[in-house]
Amino acid sequence: MSNYITTYTRRHFDPVNPEPADMDIKDIAHALSMICRGNGHVSSFWSVGEHCILCAKEAAAKGYADRLVLAALLHDASECYMSDVPRPLKQNMKQYKEQENHLLDVLYTKFLGTPLSEEEEKLIKDIDNALLWYDLKYLLDEKLEERQPKLHVEPDYTVRAFSEVEKEYLEIFKRYKI
Question: Quick one: DSSP state of residue 160?
């Protein structure tokens, strides 16, 4: 067996030893549009790509710099190569988290020029956590004890075709590309 995955654009990508030249935004947009949030435990399909688009729109609505809007769009890009692991499990997977962080640093360096600073990571994590609250409420009908986070955009959980999500992801990437 090989030490790589074959991507949508037919690249051979080694997620353990990632090469920036083997990363293609088309692979990221395509795969994330087809990966379901919450390991599929949602009332209707909601892709990681949709989540990332919403994060980018929230960052833009907050007036963040283009770099942070793009970082919000890319914050789950490692999942297109590593898949998604639910938070409760991921918290106990030290090696997975280390590999994911390394892969994200390589992705951010390729598409943003450098990895995120601690401050930038915090801003993106705040958006990610706020939108997780909405995901849990609207996709799982969770009764959450935490206060509803204020958003600058209105989440729309309408199910869309994979191709529409992929296209919008690529459009946002192109608009904010550094």
Answer: -
